[in-house]
Amino acid sequence: MSDYLDLGEQVLDKGIVSADGRRSGKVDDLLLEVDDDDMAKPPRVVGVLTGPGALAEDSARPIRMLARLFYRLLGVSRPEPTLIPWNKVTRIGVVVEIGLDRREAGLEVLNDAVSRRFIGRLPGG
Amino acid sequence: MAREQARKSTAHVGRTREEEAGGANPLRRVSALALGILAGIGGFVDFGGVVTSTQAGAQYRYGLIWTIVVGLIGFAVFAEMAGRVTISTGRTMYDVIRDRLGARLALLPLVSTTISQILTVFVELAGMALVAGWLLKVSYLLWIPLCAVLVWAIIWWAGFELLDNTAALLGLTMMVAVAVMISTTKDWGSLAAATVHPTFSGVRSPAAYLFFVISLFGAYMTPYQFAFYSSGVMEQEWNASDFLTNRVVAIVGTAFGAVVTLALMAGAAGILFPRHATVSTFAATVVPASVTLGAVGIGLFLCGTFAVSLGAGLEASMSGSYAIMQYYGWDWGKKGRPGKAPLFHFVVILFLVVGILIGETGVNPIAMTTFAMAVGAVTLPFSFIPLMIVANDRDFMGEQRNSLGTNLAAWLILALLTVVTLTAIPLLILSGSL
Hints:
- The complex is a heterodimer.
- By secondary structure, chain A is an alpha+beta fold.
- Chain A is built from 4 helices and 7 strands; from the N terminus they run H-E-E-E-E-H-E-E-E-H-H.
- The N and C termini of chain B lie far apart (53 Å).
- By secondary structure, chain B is mostly helical.
């Protein structure tokens, strides 16, 4: 049983650290694949979901709309969660480490948007 | 089993650099102490503390001095806990809380603390602006945005250490309150007795008295400061050798703040209480220092008030952003250029903007301050309970989980906060003051 991994306890809600060693969001959700023809087959973990809207996705419609609107205001044109394929997860501990740089993983969307719209316009930003 | 291993094998994320560099260095201890004093001044004494303690002394003389002892214990217990959780888990408070409670439940502490942090940012901006307005005889409404720009500029350009030490040093001028207390207090016996023995003489409305108790608790233990302390511990990369430092800092910082608070209350009791003066304007808070020490007293008091408001304003706007960043797992902290953590700086600016907007509505800053502190106290259990759940979790904390004594003290404080709040709200509604 020592190889047993509790996804809810050990993966969900953990911080994601990219290959360049930066805090890059949280594991907001997990994507599992189930074989419809053979339900006896254990589900396969496709990857972890993070980023704009990943948390709000399971909420009521007004909350989803509000989250979407908020991200639009921040400058994200298409607020969608990012999927990090499970085979890119390199280590699971206090944080979830991935073998991708932030940009490769597509995790710079929100930072880029806020930089472009707000922070980059200030002196020294 | 695997979970326990995972925790152990990587429990040193974020602290390895320090260990490689050869462990503790004495300078770090000094800056650790500065962190504690800053947290003590900025939290225990901030503009909210100046206003509420002066009001309490003016209205009830020594009747509310007992609250300082409770606040002192509560602050030290929960600050130490926040620091210890961060050292043991290698993660900050709102990060661990989300991990332990899940994203949805963890919104409760996050949202409640954010509400209190927004109000606190306004309170500290108002404190700075009222001092500036006093000195330059220009409306404080004009100063609020200018003070917000000052807070922003310091966070944007200055390093954490500089910020830490400057505000802590300037805050020392608040010791003027101690001089006021010494020169006005004649009956030291009853002052000392009042620290442990609540008196209710002169209490006409129980609802108003309880509301004061709540505001004072909120002023001593403002929610933002626990997130700030936890983040400071992380940013300074404390490790397993720092559990003692953590304890000492939490106690020294708090004690400093408690002495100043006691002095403010006793000074107001000596000068304002006999004159039946109520503190509804900023000018009234200056009276004890000006009557006792004249122009020098005014100068020191204004400088001290500005410094503690600035210190707390910096802390509150930063930890408001810290908590949100840590919940979402984004970059936070003052290391590196602002462009490296755009979201962190963006949220800091949002807090300041909302603070300005509250100020510009023209709401009475003193009344709003008392209200904001009460809101802070009401939101405290929402952060304290999750913190205690984490601090008692063997999987997260191992050997460093709460001791029986810590738990006992923490539960007592929580119970008192809850009882006072739950009693005061219906009383306030009945008496028509809410």
